[in-house]
Amino acid sequence: MKKYKYIIIALISLAFNGCEDLDREFVTTLQRDEIDASFENVSSLLNSIYSELPDGLTPIGGAAMMASASDEAEFSIPTNSVQNFNTGGWNAVSNPESFVWGNYYRGIRKINQFLVSTDKINLDRWKLDPSSQIIYEQNLAAIARWKYEARFLRAYFYFELVKRYGGVPLLNTELSLNDDFTSYKRNTLEECINFITSECTIAAQNLPLNTSTLPYANLNDLGRVTKLSALALKSRVLLYAASDLFNTPSWAAGYPNPELISLPSGNRNDRWKAASDAAKAVIDAGTLPVLGAYKALFNTNNNAEIILARTSGRSNAFEKINAPIGFNTATGGNAPSQDLVDAYEVRVGSGASATAVMFNWNDPAMAANPYANRDPRLDFSIVVNKSNFGTPARPVQLWEGGLDGKPIINASRTGYYLRKYQFESFNLTNNADGIKSWILFRFPEIYLNYAEALNEWSPGNADIKIYYDRVRSRTGVAMPGLPAGLSPAQVRERIRNEKRVEFAFEDHRLWDVRRWMQGPEFLGKPLRGVKVISTNPINTTFSYTPVIVENRTFDAKMYLYPIPQSDLNISKGGLIQNPLW
């Protein structure tokens, strides 16, 4: 058999971020036929593919979240490259997420290799051993399942590219170093959406419902993709396909290739119905979980609400980056904005007659006590002045001159700190650490996807209120439900705000604002924080004044990322750049 080196993380030419990357590829000492023949080696290859799933805790410069590229937050260290998104200082040559194109195509290439390898695995050492028949059956079942896990992961990687770039090249066969990569073109957006959703459908038909139903399930299966994962991705993809960005090419008037950035003209109601049907398929697939305590959800690796998550190794890096600056080794991190804080509603009244209203700085009572009677998710997600935090716990001092406030270097620039995802039980002085997961899909997204899509094509449908209320009625939150008598436009705004609050710092907001085509309204306006001043010598009363933290920029071209210039150069005209870049 012909032998050749197996390249485990090669970035091949055009599709894999340029020839210069080939000089840095890691080549294993294993020959390709050794990989194909070994159950263990093919299993390791699949694990390496799983490692390409995103970890949104520290993606930019090893510290900043994408929330700090949106109206959710401001990163406390101004030299982090995430700031380029906010100032407009990014382009096809320099993009804070420049790694995305290459990373996901690397994952896609590994998957294409993996799918070939799974058909060549030699199981004879178990098959021919009468005492190893159980192991043989287990391995056969695992190989069959792996193929559909890999196809889901490829679909997921493609969607991560599509939501950033529009139509991208679909490369779904194993590639050779001898291939002519200048011949590859971008597929249309419609072709990409159709391929991704078709792969989701096939994966869902061939994967177990969830990890508890996996054959020979064990704790190592908790991060594996399942039928619910595939259905959840399909729900998200079809929601994006129905939304404004992919149906309104007028933002790029004059662009000669609209098929790369928008879907063909058609009945939008049909697309919204497809999105609602996809979300309902997740809901109908099995028993729905009881939504438990919100805060605990982000500090666990096993919660029935979570459909799919990526688990990281032991670390306390996130806590050191995001804890209030007055705690040992903390650096301030991703500081929530006043714009986000204002999105958490105020509860008025109690019991069945309670209502929820938006916070209003022009209301003297609200302005004087801005954190009273707020949606509990505010406290679960964000540290405000005088919040208890940390181990040992103490009130956080966000007023000017306080332990955690200005003018300390790298203190929060917004007057808030992030609580969500932090293990407050960690004593950073003692360097305590733990394992945390980055949630990729959870049930409340499906509920709100369903409500959003229904409201667009079937306004007034009773399920809108049912699933909107299901998210808000979780244990420890119990916010009032959707009131009667709202117009479809008012319901739309309620659902959008609910997504903003429920999924704060989960890497939804930046993409939601783009797909709703509200970039100038939310990403291009000045970001606000709060100025906290102690008004007595013993620091028990305070004044709160909204202030502008940063003037930000959003141009129409920023609805999509530019194709990396290095890949455009290699393609010699084969790849077409996105509009206005």
From TrEMBL:
Coiled coil: none annotated. InterPro entries: SusD-like_N, SusD_RagB_dom, TPR-like_helical_dom_sf. Keywords: Cell outer membrane, Membrane, Signal. Its main location: membrane. Residues 74-239 form the SusD-like N-terminal domain. It is found in: Cell outer membrane. One of its GO terms (cellular component) is cell outer membrane. Belongs to the SusD family. This is Outer membrane starch-binding protein. It comes from Flavobacterium circumlabens. The lineage of its organism: Bacteria, Pseudomonadati, Bacteroidota, Flavobacteriia, Flavobacteriales.
